[in-house]
Write a structure and sequence with these properties.
By secondary structure, the protein is an alpha/beta fold. It folds into three domains: about 110 residues, 3-Layer(aba) Sandwich (Rossmann fold), CATH 3.40.50; about 200 residues, Mur-like, catalytic domain (UDP-N-acetylmuramoyl-L-alanine:D-glutamate ligase); about 130 residues, Mur ligase, C-terminal domain (Protein-Tyrosine Phosphatase, Chain A, Alpha-Beta Complex). About 35% of the residues lie in helices and about 20% in strands. It has a six-stranded parallel beta sheet. Strands 15-16-20-17-18-19 form a six-stranded mixed beta sheet, sandwiched between helices. α16 crosses α17. The chain is globular, with a radius of gyration of 23 Å.
Length: about 450
Amino acid sequence: MDKAAIILLLKKNFALDLDISKVLVVGLGNTGISVARYLQNLGINFAITDSRDKPPSIEVFLQEMPDVPVFTGGFDEAAFKVATHLVVSPGVSLNEKSIIRAITNGAKVVSDFDLFACSVDVPIVAITGSNGKSTVTTMLGEMAKAAGKKVVVGGNLGTPALDLLAQTAELYVLELSSFQLERTSVLNAAAATVLNVSADHLDRHADLAEYAREKQNVFSGNGVMVINADDPVVNAMRQSDRRILTFSIKKDADFFIARMGDAEYLMHNEQRLMPLAELPLEGKHNAANALAALALGVSIGLDEQAMCNALRAFKGLDHRMQRVAEIRGVTWVNDSKATNIGACVAALQGYERKVILIAGGDAKGADMSELAPAIKEKAKTVVLMGKDARLIGQALNGSVPVYSADNMVEAVQISARLAQTGDNVLLSPACASLDQYKNYQDRGEQFTKAVLGLLP
């Protein structure tokens, strides 16, 4: 789209006027600098504020935009007072007092996804959920490539949405978090899904119901709704006036798993798409991810055979059920991306035999008692570490043997002593990583390093 058309849409949807609007970008990380570049390119007046003394993108920002006002080391009240529009990065809570006051005084909240949606005229597929969204987003991107589409993938996964505009696309596949969805109002995806809803980010959302409502915003507009028939919270999001495709690993749906003879198949209604055994990912939760991706692909007209070929070649994401090594008959699996209870439960349910589980970190306000039934059923031993290890231990209440570790090396060494030939040791923390690590990637890399350190 050309600049004039984008500016007209911004004015129509948000009363954002080149001549009189004053935009305040709140947060100067990856999203904030992508917003700054976008606004500067359109010639829209803006300033930036960040509560940190030295935000991660400050040096790049000052080099690229030395004339743009920037306020760091706390939120500048004067900047909020004059702002007509706020673009708040997902890492910043909308409950900040400065933001609440600005909204009360009439400032409009616009997200980077709103700006993105006003800037493209090709289909968008929007994917959210507590677990699996990065896997499904990446899967669908590979499927679209295999089907011959010029596809661009990003959003909460990797590249910020506005930075994707620099690439030519016939299709955008975007991952969105609850923080992004809570401040997005004009998204109208050609197809969208909420993969599942389980307790997550309850340190930022009031309760599970509010969290689910934010997720449901992905279904704004009139595109195809892809619904997980196995998740009652998602099932309740159906809208009677919309085209709906369903997926399930437990029952009949538009996309489901059927056993025929000695094999299980991924199905689309009565059509066998491919044997489940040809999906190169562990766990039934990954079968559900594949079914969701197939449903999204069909909803936008991708060739089913091309999509199945892409699934056969899909090796999964780093730090998501990633097989690290087999050492002395013990298999070590890195699922560091399991930063909430639902992700850990899904990982555990994928195993037939009981595993040795390494878990713990920052629980983000979640009720760890919800993790206990899956651990009791699927874990023979648990090794706990991190800030909220004690909460998990209390929730287990002696139902399985529990060991404590101060760091990842110690957790791996304890697990190695406990493990026997044929065992799986699974790092699936059910918690965020920032109490001890830079991010979940760093945590997974430290696990991998510690495991490889066991080699003779």
